[in-house]
Design brief:
α2 packs across α7 and α6 packs across α17. With about 675 residues, the chain is mostly helical. The radius of gyration is 30 Å and the shape is elongated. The chain has a four-stranded mixed sheet. A two-stranded antiparallel sheet has the order 1-8. About 60% of the residues lie in helices and about 5% in strands. The protein folds into three domains: about 425 residues, no CATH class; about 120 residues, no CATH class; about 110 residues, Serine Threonine Protein Phosphatase 5, Tetratricopeptide repeat, CATH 1.25.40. α19 links the parallel β2 and β3.
């Protein structure tokens, strides 16, 4: 480490450099892959309403989402950022960075002689491993904007009590920001209760008399307490919930009236468990075994980034804080108290509505509940480091290592988000190519969830947005994963209701009006829309084979005029010079017996140098060439299909049977088909 002093030779400690330093860390952890990330799960309702129904419709959407006062935020952001996911990803990173930087300025005013500790806390907070859905860029803006407003309010409160001349304007701004974050996002309502603790600490440095401290604390806290009281009165007594019910009703308060002792006991247990998860257990994620598998170039890249960040953070801290020796008074009691109270108070809104982290079924979605607690958790973490380690270099090493490991974890998680977005894009493209128009009331079915970090309603909203249907009153189709809906094949084929709803969208359909998708791009396959003739397809599981009997491709309609395209604002320009484009269009043409179009598509694919990775995707072309009398080409494609994909014989034999039944009889046809059937041993499947 002796050479670290030369790594940053021109860096001298000043306030202007720390925000830039934080920005570099934020970009390394959350911005390197921003151009490869998209929309996920709870992002899609916002995108759907703003894109299809118009940005003003967000008022209705957020009312049904029990957050009516957040409409101003999202209307402003969509007007400013549009629908390009890259802009949302960048903005989410900037808001995270601004929040950490603002908290750093606040901590510097709270502990003017503890700049090193303030920097440690803000660094740990910036990369804290608990909040896992940073990539939900649209949805996470609700959390980061609320946190930023709260942090700014704390900072301005500190400025107000330190400045007699600007006390009133700073206080007014701080109270306005308090009201803004309370009425916009309820996640930080509990954290407002740390204000009297902070004020009392500040005044304890100025006044020795306890009575004076209490009076000054009460007087300065009163405007903020008034804002909090106004919010509570509005939320409990004046707020009118949507017709679908209040998803954030205060269940805990009702339980306290019914059985106070049991409720308090349960709450105490939950509070301890949730706090331990945020403060301590979340760091276990940074030691993910797969990170050290060295299996892919991505793993090596992440490890390289982590190593470089460790060196950079260590060098920066050593360069700028080595001269700040430990103070004679220990930085322990009040920081620890503030950290503990911040963790507990931040999760009060969560517990009040009957939710908790420990029992949440989705680790990623549940991480939003503890975003406010990461500030207190960072404080506790740094207090432990400061008081357990007596050597500055050791402290620098531990903080640098924590930052590096946390960022490695975040980058590893982002890889999953990248794959999900790539798969979403492929699904949208290929479904639109194969099914340019779908009859209203259709259920879109797969065997299981096919997209990571999504969910049935998210996929439904994304697919409806893909078709750009405008201001619709009800969803024309909806996505249902079979195993999570009614995993009984016989009942599904007989006919069961398929119903689902989200916000103002209510779908009511039947399993007898569905199309079945097989979508496995990771297996080098295009999107397959199965149909009754695929009941013998060995390349899918037994349930999919059986379900294909009920897949009605007549629900897919032709379009008149210009071919529909993906919304470029969301997905960018689409490339139609790919094998999957030619296959999907050929499969659509086969449905409508447009055999000449299929042969032209084959010629275009050959000219583009594209070919199938799976023999099943040659079958529309085999049938196309058979129907146009080019039996030699049909024979070559049949042999190629059987060669590149094992187990395809039953499907190829079925295709040959269809050609026998549907094409004009000729010696060439009969000889070709018979020879192929013999080679495929079709008698074993008939």
């Amino acid at each position: 480490m002796a050479s670290n002093r030369s790594i940053l030779p021109n860096v001298k400690f000043n306030e202007d450099q720390v925000p830039l330093f934080f920005l570099i860390i934020a970009i390394a952890g959350f911005g390197l892959f921003a151009n490869r990330l998209g929309y996920y799960q709870d992002d899609w309702p916002y995108v759907f309403y703003a894109f299809n129904k118009g940005i003003p419709s967000l008022v209705t959407e957020l009312y049904y989402d029990s957050r009516p006062n957040a409409a101003w935020l999202y209307m402003g952001l969509f007007n400013l950022l549009g629908f390009n996911p890259l802009f949302w990803q960048i903005t989410a990173v900037l808001f995270r960075w601004l929040t950490a930087t603002t908290l750093w300025y606040f901590l510097k005013r709270l502990w003017p002689d503890r700049t090193r500790e303030a920097t440690f806390v803000s660094l740990v907070f910036l990369v804290h491993p608990f909040f896992l859905i940073q990539s939900y860029a649209v949805n996470s803006m609700l959390y980061w904007s609320g946190f930023l407003f709260f942090a700014l309010s704390l900072y301005l409160m500190m400025r107000a009590i330190a400045s007699y001349q600007f006390f009133i304007p700073f206080t007014v701004l701080a109270v306005l920001l308090e009201g803004l974050h309370l009425f916009t996002s309820e996640y930080f309502a509990g954290m407002t209760l740390i204000r009297p603790l902070i004020l009392y600490w500040v005044f304890s440095k100025q006044f020795s008399d306890t009575r004076t401290r209490i009076i000054k604390t009460a007087l300065n806290w009163f405007p903020y307490l008034a804002a909090l009281t106004a919010y509570i009165i509005w939320r409990i007594f004046l707020y009118i919930p949507p017709p679908i019910g209040d998803r954030n009703s205060p269940e805990l308060l009702y339980a306290l009236f019914r059985s106070p002792i049991t409720t308090i006991r349960n709450l105490t247990q939950i509070a301890i468990q949730d706090s331990v998860i945020v403060v301590f257990t979340s760091w276990q994620r940074t030691f993910a075994p797969e990170l050290f598998s060295f299996a892919t170039r991505f793993n090596w890249f992440v490890l390289l980034v982590a190593a470089l960040l460790f060196l950079a953070v260590f060098a920066y801290l050593k360069k700028n804080y080595s001269e700040q020796s430990n103070k004679p008074d220990r930085w322990l009691v009040f920081p620890l108290i503030l950290g503990v109270f911040s963790v507990l108070l931040s999760m009060i809104p969560l517990w009040i509505i009957g939710q908790n982290i420990i029992a949440h079924k989705n680790e990623f979605a549940g991480s939003r509940f503890g975003i406010g607690a990461t500030f207190g958790a960072s404080l506790i973490f740094v207090v432990i480091i400061e008081n357990l380690l007596d050597n500055l270099k050791k402290k620098f090493v531990v903080v640098s290592l924590c930052v590096a490991l946390a960022i490695a974890m975040h980058l590893t998680i982002e890889r999953g988000f990248i794959h999900s977005w790539e798969k979403q894009e492929r699904l949208a493209r290929e479904l639109l190519w194969r099914a340019p128009k779908i009859e209203f009331g259709t259920a879109i079915v797969t065997d299981e969830e096919i997209l990571g970090y999504m969910g049935s309603y998210s996929v439904s909203y994304s697919l409806i947005t893909t078709y750009q249907l405008g201001d619709i009153a009800s969803p024309p189709y909806w996505y249902f994963p079979f195993y999570y809906t009614n995993p009984n094949v016989e009942a599904f084929l007989t006919g069961i209701p398929l119903e689902d709803s989200k916000l103002t969208m209510n779908f009511s359909g039947s399993s007898q009006q569905m199309i079945l998708l097989s979508f496995n791009p990771e297996m080098k396959r295009c999107l397959w829309i199965l149909q009754p003739q695929d009941t013998n397809l060995r390349l899918v599981n037994d349930d999919m084979r059986k379900l294909s009997a009920g897949s009605d491709i007549d629900l897919i309609k032709e379009t008149v005029g210009e071919e529909p395209n993906l919304p470029e604002d969301i997905y960018g320009k689409q490339d139609t010079r790919t094998w999957c484009y030619f296959f999907e269009k050929a499969d659509l043409a086969r449905q409508y017996k447009q055999w000449d179009i299929i042969t032209k598509l084959w010629q275009q694919a050959q000219a583009a140098g594209e070919q199938a990775d799976n023999g099943f995707e040659y079958i529309p072309f085999i049938e196309g060439f058979g129907h146009t009398g080019n039996w030699e080409q049909a024979k070559l494609l049949t042999k190629s299909a059987n060669k590149i994909t094992a187990g395809l014989e039953p499907s190829l034999c079925s295709a040959l049977n269809r050609l026998t039944a549907e094409t004009s009889k000729s010696d060439e046809r009969d000889q070709t088909i018979q020879k192929l059937k013999d080679d495929l041993k079709c008698s074993n499947f008939e």
